[in-house]
Design a protein that fits this description.
The protein is of the alpha+beta class. It contains 3 helices and 6 strands, in the order βαββαβαββ. The two termini are 30 Å apart.
Length: 160
């Protein structure tokens, strides 16, 4: 029996198509790229999350001289929220990037580890996280849940 996995997402022309709440979250993510420590890749990623208490928290990638030790913006942010605001849920997260090596006009696509980490947070708080993906300019993609980005993701239920 063949089965299919489908998901819907919004593909918007640019940031002006977002409502004000999402647009300001994306602007915070764009600003957060400037806090990245990315001397090795020169690929600066910024992420911003809107919490259930209304606060916007930001994170950025932090690289290491020992390359694999570095951490992506999304997990910097998620781990910071999990530590500082363990009782808040994440309503939405915007992610953007800045690099002198590319035009930065395509939406970013989070890596597999970050997709798992986003899914972990959704499962932990039983709440979907809206994910807004963008470059510096150009199209913006809006995904309703991290689940959509990681089909057959490991949810930890077998560990119980
Ligand atoms: N990176 C992120 O921070 N988030 C992503 O979604 C993709 C990749 C970082 C990791 C590394 O510091 C640099 O971008 C290049 O891979």
């Amino acid at each position: 029996m063949k089965q299919q996995f489908n998901f819907e997402f919004d593909y918007l022309e640019d940031i002006s198509q977002l409502d004000e709440q999402d647009a300001s979250l994306l602007r915070a993510a764009m600003k957060a790229t400037q806090t990245a420590f990315a001397p090795y890749s020169n690929f600066k990623v910024g992420a911003a999350a809107l919490l259930s208490n209304g606060q916007i928290i930001i994170g950025s990638n932090q690289e290491s001289a020992s390359y694999p030790v570095g951490i992506c913006a999304e997990r910097t942010l998620l781990n910071s929220i999990g530590s500082q605001f363990p009782n808040e849920t994440i309503i939405s997260m915007a992610i953007s990037y800045d690099s002198s090596k590319t035009a930065c006009n395509e939406p970013i696509s989070p890596c597999g580890m970050c997709r798992q980490s986003l899914l972990d947070f959704e499962n932990r708080y039983h709440a979907a996280i809206k994910i807004i993906l963008a470059g510096k300019t150009g199209p913006v993609m809006v995904v309703k849940s991290a689940k959509d980005l990681l089909p057959f993701g490991f949810d930890g239920s077998v560990l119980k």
